[in-house]
Amino acid sequence: MAAIKAARRVEVNAKNNQIVELDYVDKGISIQIQTLTSLTLSHNKLTAVPAGIAELLNLEMLNLWNNRIEELPTSISSLPKLRVLNLGMNRLWTLPRGFGSFPCLEVLDLTYNNLSEKSLPGNFFMLESLRALYLADNDFEMLPQDIRHFKNLQILVLRDNDLVYLPKEIGELGRNLNLSGDKQVFRLDNNPWVPPIVEQLTVGIPQLLTYLASETYK
């Protein structure tokens, strides 16, 4: 995978659970481990993800946090076992066609990018296995009604966007979102909300979700 040669530090975890660190990958070391289950390429200066990433058929976790990636190959969504994908703190402005085809993706982190509702491909909301979605610090002004298809979603972070209102359908997610305990799993702060949503937020998230699902909210 030629594009990975730009990375200075790679951390891999194979099926035997032994951690291997490959330094100075740019000196010609390449990754060809079919049994690879975990790959961390965070804090490098990668600008692209090679299409050959799809050859890592046993990959379950891919961490690309804090790079300079602007777009992804369409092949990435064909990873059959990927459960955790961290693309936070990059320069993504769009997601590739077919991105919603991951068969078992559970955690998707898109924090700190340049994404908006226009960046999402048509099948994005077909990620039926998704349990956690992080969209903080992007450029979303609205959320599509199709968010109701995330039936298994337990964590949703939308803070620091340009959101004014929420689709009524998001109220349907309230039964699955884990709102118990101190851990904030539904983050909406730092958005320019319309007054009715602001009023409900001052009361609490459970009340907001009830309001969104009610006939009062249009």
From TrEMBL:
The keyword Oxidoreductase does not apply. Residues 100-184 form the Disease resistance R13L4/SHOC-2-like LRR domain. The keyword Ribonucleoprotein does not apply. SMART domains: LRR_TYP. GO terms for cellular component: cytoplasm. It holds the Pfam family LRR_14. InterPro entries: Leu-rich_rpt, Leu-rich_rpt_typical-subtyp, LRR_dom_sf, LRR_domain-containing, LRR_R13L4/SHOC2-like. Keywords: Leucine-rich repeat, Repeat. This is Ras suppressor protein 1. It comes from Romanomermis culicivorax (Nematode worm).
